[in-house]
Amino acid sequence: MRYAETGYNLEIDLTRGNIERVETDPELMALFLGGLGTSVKIHYDRVPPETKAFDPENLIVISTGLLCGTPAYSANRTIVSFISPQTGLLAYPMMGGFWSSELKYAGYDKVIINGKSPELVYIWIHNEKVEIRDATHLQGKGAIETQELIRKELNDPDVQVLAIGLAGENRCFTASIEQSRSSSSRGGGGAVLGDKKIKAVAVRGTRAVHLAHGAEFMEHMKEITKYIKFRNENPIPEVMPILSGIGSPQMMKHVDEQWHTESFAWGNARIRRKGFWTKEIEKEWTKSQTGAIKRFISCFNCPQQCGALISHEDVPNYMMKCFSKLTYTMAAFVDDLDFTWRICKRAFEYGLDSFSTPQILAFGVELHEAGILTDEDFAGCPSDKEGRFFWLLDRVAHREGIGDILADGTYWAARRIGNGAEKYDHNTTKKHEQMNIKLGMMDPLYFLMYATNEKISITQMEGNWPQAPFPKKETRESFVKDWPQLPDEKFKKYFIDWEPRGENSNPNYPTPQIASEIVDWMEMLHNIDDALGICAGMGSFCLKPPYHIHNYPKLISAATGMDMDKERLRKTVRRSRNLHRAFNNLRGMGRPDERPPQDHWKHRFPELEDDLLTYYYTFKGWNHDGVPTRKTLEELNLADVAEDLETRGILKDGQN
Amino acid sequence: MAKIKKKIKTIKIDADKCNGCRTCEVVCAAFHSQPKYSSINPAASRIHVITRRLDDIWLPVFAGEYSPAECMGRDKYVIDGKEYDECSFCRATCPSRDMFKDPDSGLPLKCDMCEGEESPLCVQWCLNDVLIYEEREEEVEEMVQIEEMDAGLASLIDRYGLEKIGTALARMSYKA
Fold this sequence. Notes:
The structure holds two protein chains of two kinds.
Chain A: E1 8-13, E2 18-23, H1 26-32, H2 36-46, E3 60-63, E4 78-83, E5 90-91, E6 94-95, H3 99-106, E7 110-114, E8 121-126, E9 129-134, H4 143-154, E10 160-163, H5 166-169, E11 177-179, E12 182-184, H6 189-195, E13 198-204, E14 209-210, H7 214-233, H8 241-244, H9 258-263, E15 265-266, E16 271-272, H10 279-292, E17 293-297, E18 307-312, E19 315-321, H11 324-331, H12 337-350, H13 356-369, H14 385-398, H15 402-406, H16 409-417, E20 428-429, E21 432-433, E22 439-441, H17 444-452, H18 473-481, H19 490-497, H20 512-532, H21 552-560, H22 566-586, E23 601-603, H23 606-620, H24 630-635, H25 639-647
Parallel strand pairs in A: 1-7, 8-13, 22-23
Antiparallel strand pairs in A: 1-2, 3-4, 3-7, 4-5, 4-6, 8-9, 10-11, 10-13, 11-12, 15-16, 17-18, 18-19, 20-21
Helix pairs in contact in A: 1-2, 2-22, 7-21, 11-12, 11-13, 12-14, 13-14, 17-20, 17-23, 18-19, 20-22, 20-23
Chain B: E1 3-13, H1 23-31, E2 39-40, E3 47-52, E4 57-62, E5 78-79, E6 82-83, H2 121-125, E7 131-141, H3 148-160, H4 162-175
Helix pairs in contact in B: 3-4
């Protein structure tokens, strides 16, 4: 009997049309848990460094997390991993929704897809019965529409479907995979599915997931439930409402967007509009938002309600979450939320990432204004801001005209266009569009996270540590009083000492050592969440979350029967993180790539940043190039990885 | 006949508050697994959230009585412009649909209000107050409790007459 995991993966070879249900090695759970951890292992073992995103050998692994399908609240993440067409590295965008639990109930931990289909197909998984089905009739259909059409075709409303839209079919580098109220967006998973000619994967499961010590598991969950109730009734008093709760940022519930609209940058991550949030805007946006939202909704087995069903005027109903509410609108410089409700529906049907795509469209607009792109490139484009964005969005999804170039994302498009376009690609790290935020003083914590994390997207690696120091000492003291999630008491002092100005402020404080400890802790939590399939909104992404390093080992032990403690858990995710890094190192990633966008902060300190990076690398057990050392790898039972790195000359002699 | 007190147990369902998370299904399935909490299979849950997301339909329904035969006709409700599937509001385990049948054995499942617990588990674990448990006592006429089989036989006798039923029983026991 296997506990928490099902112990089976579904292996699909599209080139040969072969489907196999393969039992997995139980030792892999002991070494890598599941979810991202075991997926990284599969990619490392099977995908050589020469493989490119659109090669048939590029695996796409659609994975559940270890706790998906168990009664652990918010264990609903589907982790999709593949070589990204944009970055050339191993991407792993995740989505909530209902798919991963259904796959577990169908009896599988992962779907591993290899090769390419000659025609557009969808995969239908119904317990032991798995079929590759014709999807030519779904060609060009929207990603949301496709989910409904497949449910109808299979005559079962409880089937869970992940699907791509036209953007995925056309291999746009920022194509997403859409599913119920969620999407797996960053890095172009939709493009890889489209390249393999998979329109959708539908699943229905009616089998059981087992717990090793179920009654004990439920006792732990009772404690966690108590905390969720407490936090929902008592938001953190020291921070603004949007940061005070648990779950994803509650942008469907909160209408006050002063912080985002005034602190974040509009257009192609360019301009801060201080004073934007007037009484009039507040009134209009409140009316628009409360009018458009029909109901707040959640993902599988989650008490929070981070998403919403949108029903706006003549726009057919769809679901929205989080920051999409602002990305297109801010990138297009539109002051009216009506535009949000309309463009998001179209973008979601196309299946495009709401983070990267708006920046790419704004980048196109900038190039036109600068005369680098011509009127000919924009022939037929409406002149109003809204119409222009819709027009560009259509071109990108269809890969028509200038849209064909922009569909490769800012970095690649800039290089294809040339003629000075490169300098407009100012907000990417590792070729990927970053958060639209531009600040004053370099912040050591954010420097490290932007520079080094394998996720390559800041919104998914920050979290438990407040984003900025609190101005008043007494507020800091009251904040640390009730903070059991911390891995160590000493972090309280770090926080109390951290000030907005003076000696103990950015860029010199947190010191490299303290910054390394804090970032390492936050990254560890993300890696745990991503292995377990827990929503970061309940673990690693928010302040004072229900799940943390002190209760995770108990839950994992009760669920799996393994003897898990904090140290072992720490080591387990360190193992998968280092394997992930080695995989990326083998694909050429190294120190020169590890830098936040140059204009992310106005005040930069090259020498200090260099020291910070070196300190952090040493702290993590990596060499000067950001490659795990032999010693680090051996400690983590990854000696064979050290061999690989040495054979390829990436880990040089004497760097052990 | 004497009056006796009867405990009426009700789960009030505020469907407008449902966010469609299906925690009720998860915890119900876990509680009713053998041994308790050893496994989770929402398809074996005694509560089901009928979900039609884009139509704004999230409707928790919990399992009622087993019915060996379909009704002669089906109902279909439209409320506030939302069209619900046929028989959505019916709690019976019935041949017309798969709902509330054990996925392995096909045997009917019935909500037992999690007997022995303070309140049904689905109610305890729904943090959005969609499911509210209510208990009240009512005075009812004391009635002789008829066993399920007696009730079934009585209805057969009503329909076919004692003689025919007796003959059929004799024939069947001879075959057995």
